[in-house]
């Protein structure tokens, strides 16, 4: 794998994978084919639990992935306070009963589920956007952290700290393995993350733009054509910042909120059903959809397996080349 290249880290050892490359748990995207392709190539593929309408559907999706690979696969569960929350505990139980041994949590504190998960041998990766949240995640007992820099797609938090500072700052404060997310699309990013103290990387937008990604080819082509300048930060005034693709809808949301609007004034524009139409139908202005500034580094639509293999091979080459530049004095 990886052209014969293997980079072993605390993360690969803890989670039983070959390469320190994780596919982000993206809503509507983290399905069986993509997750299995990443895992089969030696990385860690992630099925997004809430993409599935019910816990039973999640179990069926995990079974579909199992028919495609026998390598470790994770499940993402984003826990958010809502008026009518999904049955989170039932999704957790579906993952456990399906034999999942890796759960990626995001949003709220996963502590209420940790005893149950640990009792069934499930290791937990918790996504964080700040050092203080990573420290708390370690304290409550998660097995690893995924630290999201300001460059990331989706919700980067409110601190606006990029990976160049956030990664080493995290390395200075926690002892459990952690992976870096946001602004990473190739082996240069993996090599940089390792040099800054991370034990691997999480890539969302890069795997969104792969052949196994279950979204319209129009979305993938837009990512290839776009630059690092083509995203918008919405919900800034609501202290719930999200990074999404720049399109007619996201620019309108920014305008309304900047002029004093509240969430109710943009609710219809940001509805999840509209965003799903972008992915399903390829109507790029149907709604908002997440992508990171890293799209400026994405120039093709390869297979997920090729992404894993060439990322690791390129990282090895970067690290080898840089180390050879060190001269005795």
TrEMBL record:
InterPro entries: Aldolase_TIM (IPR013785), NMO (IPR004136). Keywords: Flavoprotein, FMN, Monooxygenase, Oxidoreductase. One of its GO terms (molecular function) is nitronate monooxygenase activity. Signal peptide: none annotated. Pfam families: NMO (PF03060). It comes from the Bacteria. This is Nitronate monooxygenase. It comes from Mumia flava.
């Amino acid at each position: 794998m990886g052209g014969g290249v293997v980079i072993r880290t605390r993360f690969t050892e803890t989670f039983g994978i070959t390469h320190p490359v994780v596919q982000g748990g993206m809503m509507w995207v983290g399905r069986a084919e993509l997750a299995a392709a990443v895992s089969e190539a030696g990385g860690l593929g992630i099925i997004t639990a809430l993409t599935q309408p019910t816990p039973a559907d999640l179990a069926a999706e995990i079974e579909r992935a199992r028919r495609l690979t026998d390598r470790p696969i994770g499940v993402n569960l984003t826990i958010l306070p809502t008026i009518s929350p999904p049955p989170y505990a039932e999704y957790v139980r579906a993952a456990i009963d399906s034999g999942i041994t890796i759960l990626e949590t995001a949003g709220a504190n996963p502590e209420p589920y940790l005893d149950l998960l640990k009792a069934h041998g499930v290791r937990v990766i918790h996504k964080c956007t700040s050092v203080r949240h990573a420290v708390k995640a370690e304290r409550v007992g998660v097995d690893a952290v995924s630290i999201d820099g300001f460059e990331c797609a989706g919700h980067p938090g409110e601190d606006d700290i990029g990976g160049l500072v956030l990664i080493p700052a995290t390395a200075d404060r926690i002892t459990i393995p952690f992976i870096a997310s946001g602004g990473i699309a190739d082996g240069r990013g993996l090599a940089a993350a390792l040099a800054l103290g991370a034990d691997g990387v999480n890539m969302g937008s890069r795997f969104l733009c792969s052949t196994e990604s279950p979204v319209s080819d129009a979305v993938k082509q837009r990512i290839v054509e776009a630059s690092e300048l083509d995203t918008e930060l919405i919900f800034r005034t609501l202290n719930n910042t999200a990074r999404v693709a720049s399109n007619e809808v996201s620019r309108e949301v920014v305008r309304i909120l900047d002029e004093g609007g509240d969430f109710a004034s943009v609710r219809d524009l940001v509805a999840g059903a509209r965003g799903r139409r972008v992915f399903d139908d390829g109507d790029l202005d149907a709604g908002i959809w997440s992508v990171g500034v890293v799209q400026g580094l994405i120039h093709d639509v390869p297979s997920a397996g090729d992404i894993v293999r060439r990322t690791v091979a390129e990282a090895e080459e970067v690290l080898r080349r840089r180390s050879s530049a060190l001269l005795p004095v």
